[in-house]
Amino acid sequence: MQDLPNLILIGPMGAGKSTIGRLLAAELSRQFLDSDHEIQARCGADIPWIFDVEGEAGFRHREVQMIEELTELEGVVIATGGGAVLREENRRRLRERGTVIYLFTTVEQQLKRVAKDRNRPLLQRPDREQVLREMFAVRDPLYRATADIVVRTDRRSPRAVVNEIVRRVQRLVDPLQAKA
């Protein structure tokens, strides 16, 4: 399946982008890259620190540069940060340079998955559910407008999600072979 384009995972925090991305890359014998992890490695600092020092605007600027760099690679699986779709230049690059997969999950599922996570600066408030609902209202339309495929991750194993992604991407690349 080396003829597949870059596969780019988008979606909210807690949707499973990193977990599913690693499994998907292994399944396809591809390199996996996580834009948030790459930013941290490049900066030598974690995301909460970047937010504290540079603010969200500073982080988003770094994110634009990283997405530009990662999407120039070929034959990779990329997981983006949840807010990557907020910038038009990111949405455009993602659409132009790969097949974009929106990992959809509900706010209820997000709350369960990120309940103990202290590495998410936008959630370090007592009203986490309200914050997630507000982000969903803004970001869901952007995820949908950017994605080639939408895959629901709620109450599904990561392996089941990976299998669905592989099937659906194959159909996009070669609709006739997928029916055989």
From TrEMBL:
It is an enzyme of class 2 (transferase). Its EC number is 2.7.1.71. Substrate binds at D36, R60, G82, R139. ATP binds at G14, A15, G16, K17, S18, T19, R120, R156. PROSITE patterns: SHIKIMATE_KINASE. Binds 1 Mg(2+) ion per subunit. SUPFAM superfamilies: P-loop containing nucleoside triphosphate hydrolases (SSF52540). Its cofactor is Mg(2+). Mg(2+) binds at S18. Keywords: Amino-acid biosynthesis, Aromatic amino acid biosynthesis, ATP-binding, Cytoplasm, Kinase, Magnesium, Metal-binding, Nucleotide-binding, Transferase. Pathway: Metabolic intermediate biosynthesis; chorismate biosynthesis; chorismate from D-erythrose 4-phosphate and phosphoenolpyruvate: step 5/7. It is found in: Cytoplasm. It holds the Pfam family SKI. GO terms for molecular function: shikimate kinase activity. It comes from the Bacteria. Monomer. Belongs to the shikimate kinase family. Catalyzes the specific phosphorylation of the 3-hydroxyl group of shikimic acid using ATP as a cosubstrate. This is Shikimate kinase. It comes from Billgrantia ethanolica.
